[in-house]
Specification:
Length: 168
Amino acid sequence: MESLDYPDLHHASAMEGWLDLDLPDEALAEFDRLTAPARKHPSVLELQWRLQSIQKDWLAAVETAQKVMELAPWLPNGWIHRSFSLHELRRTEEALRNLLEAEPRFPTNSIIPYNLACYACQLGDLALARRWLRRVIDLKGIGHLRSNALDDPDLAPLWAEIASSDMA
């Protein structure tokens, strides 16, 4: 959380700690103690998005992720969080389209193709989902994919393939 001064740095760090402990009310109390300028810092906005996701306030989470994208377009999380929030709002086609824009910007990020596979799978395009899963394998390996994908309900239609050697 570079460029935050005390006491904002203290409150942001405490907020992160409370979120790590899954204590959103305490995290919100720390957020409320932050100054207005600190609330516009990308790191603080990331924490705010985490809090909103725990609270399942997906409309607010979309807005927060959009702010991260505007303030720090070179960071992939704003793009990833916006699409994830849209998906949670059942706007999966929009989530897919938006995240497709990010993929060329962050070619080594494995979360983007993974999430694209999830969205494609949920939209019924299993061929596209497989293509994105192969990209994850190229980036991180089949073991990494299996350790995440076999518990992910968004990928349930492909679990058998992921578990077998067919996906490797």
